[in-house]
Write a structure and sequence with these properties.
Elements (H helix, E strand, L loop, with lengths): L1 H9 L2 E5 L2 H10 L4 E6 L8 H15 L3 E6 L21 H7 L3 H5 L13 E4 L1 H4 L4 H8 L4 H5 L2 H8 L6 H17 L3 E5 L3 H15 L4 E5 L26 H9 L6 H8 L4 H12 L4 H16 L2 H16 L8 E3 L3 E4 H7 L6 H9 L3 E3 L2 E2 L6 E4 L4 E4 L3 E5 L1
Parallel strand pairs: 2-3, 2-5, 3-4, 5-6, 7-13
Antiparallel strand pairs: 1-6, 8-11, 9-10, 9-12, 12-13
Length: 398
Amino acid sequence: MEDKIQEVLTRSIDTIYPNREALENLLKSGKKLRIYMGIDPTATYVHLGHATNYIILKRFHELGHKIIVLVGDFTAMIGDPSDKSSARIRLSREQVRENLKSFKEQIGKIIDFDNKDNPVELRFNSEWLSKMKFEDVVNLAAHFTVQQMIERDIFQKRIKEKKPLYVNEFFYPLMQGYDSVILEADVEVGGTDQTFNMLAGRQLVKDEQNREKIVVSTTLLENPATGEKLMSKSLGTGIALNEEPAEMFGKVMALPDEAIIQCFIDCTYEDLKKIEQYKGEISEGKNPRDVKMILAEEIVRIYHSDEAAMAAKDRFVNVFQKKELPEDIKEMKLEGNYPLPNLLVETGLVASGSEARRLIESGAVTIDGAKCGDASAQISAHPGMIIKVGKRRFLKIK
């Protein structure tokens, strides 16, 4: 198991608290650890950035440890201030419930919820947080000082910029920290943007249970050239685990070339020696697009199948490299004259008139191969007409 232990200690890992040796000793001790990661259902999807951490949980599971997948259905209603320059919009119970509908199915593409020998727990923090009395909250808050809270970098930034900082935002790390106490966690896994919250849990475990909790802070999927997040629910960006194969393949191909190697490391099970080989090939002049095609195919294979991955690759090559129409092009019977934005909405190619106008003005709309940049244009729908929006949305008029 030595190779597996070293991989779980190093691959996609930023920092381990209190240190790497503490976790390594535990992993080699033979003790079955309780390891968890939490996710707030602030959107309907789980994206590749989250997948990094679930892949790490999968590695821990393969080493025989107890895995807990925690869904922050209560904390989602408060909103995590991590890495945010302004307060989050709070969600209602109904919004959270709607967002949760396919979470287990998406996470189950990585985590084996059907494992009978070492069952994975799926928990929801509303089980305990919704039952707390105000007295409990006061007692929880007594473990921390205001100075500790406002030391947080994002809070300091907002104070300097004279932006509002709400008291309820201080509650978030308390609640996430209390999750660790209730779950009796030995290890918590999360991105570097969760370090403050996870360390709050470490302090609560020490204070409440007089024991140690290891914090594993993992790398975020970022563009190495700009430092910008590649996946963000709050920004509406990212590649969802429930994307259709062709859409998933195309979105991977749209990622910046600089991110290829990091995505191989964080988002796939590819051997690290093979990834180093890809890195060397790119540095020696190989077209990054060719390596990205391998990445896209591998990611689609993980979340769908070998057949879906091959079909998505063939479709991408035909549509975007050979400039052919996709075989599965959507068709619709339509006739009459339409303002161009209305036509795009009517055909279901866009969700709203404002989105339609934005795409038209940015040059992302073509009809029969001709770019349409005038949002006031009147279009006469006719059989055989091909409408294309962006790189991946096609429609043929019957």
